[in-house]
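Model it.
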Amino acid sequence: MRRFVASFGIITTLAVGSAVSVARAQTNAGTGYFTVKVDAPQNGELKINPPIPEDHQVRAGTVLKIKATPARGFALDSGYYWSAAKSGMYFETPTPEFEVTIDQNKTVGASFIEQKELRGFKVINNVVYAQPGVKALKYDVYSPKGAKNLPGIVIIHGGGWSVNCEDVMRGLARELVRGGRYVVASVDYRWLGTQDGDTQPNSMADIIDDVYGAIAHVQEHAQEYGADPTRLAVTGDSAGGQLSAAAINLADHIGDGGFGVKEGVYEFKPSYLPAGKTAAQVRTEILQALKAAAPSYGIFSSAALGGWAHRGGAGDVSEAAIKAISPQDNIPNIKDRAVPQFLLRGTRDTLIQNSTVQAYADALMAAGQSVTYVQVPGAGHAFLDWKPDPQVKRTFKRFGQPYAAKMEEFFNSVFYPLPTSASP
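Modeled.
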């Protein structure tokens, strides 16, 4: 993880063209000052030392010490800064006191949430599970108070496989943990290509390795979180939709034979393996544990994934390799293994078409699998995301909350099925 400040992690991207953003960031760089703005906090206050001048010009290298204090009845959601020069990414921290170094134009702020929204569960932030490259890979755990042997849900974030971290799914995590029936782990992974700063570009196969590594780590520590390592589900949105579908469909391809190293062999070696366990043992454990998936507005076919896979510039991107990462090309037959799935898509999603998701649903049904496909009236893309931006929060409240409840109903049908009445 790029750590501009020790406690920060990348969360999301704003709609700002990177070339324009960089140009704006450089306009005052020659003067030795940068423009620093403050988002007016709602339901809390910020204290910044040294104070931001009225002209918003702050000397390069200045370290701002910031303290976020919630108003009565509210709690800190996150402290943050974002920079257009970094493609408008938010960098967030869960701690009320944090520092921001001024090395480019930045906007700082804090997001607050009603205290009642955080009751009934605890959060463990930034559990590091592996570091195969520059970035430390981590996840956050949401556990109901008193949790013991509950089913677990692993959330995989979206962002074109090349932005965001687990923080962007915390709204969904809160909704799924709130009922007290699930322990939720929201996971991060390597970014496609060299976006993390790695010398060797990362491929989609590498990212799937990370997903399995995170699942293996969650299983190893499940009892500490109050979860049952043998009862897990996966979900994710956008790129995370593809990754969550891949996680359940491709689990029988976990191994140490390499991805395309030998002709016709495409195996995923988890980026984390518990001490003393082989990839084959982890494969068995993950295969037995994954009971369901809820991939939202994702890309599932090899035809659709091909262009994205080539963007990474790493590893095997042959037709066979792209099929090997495609959830739609690797659906188990119901006679071999059940992979029940719940699919969501907004009717106004301009990135993912209805035909794309319907084709995946049809392929699941053709394999005898159980599938529910729900279209969300009026919703666009990424309505399950959570960010400091007020508009994103409103979108989540309008669409994310009610359809997270429907997702939970699906998981309940798998893990808490209603008893069938006996025949007379």
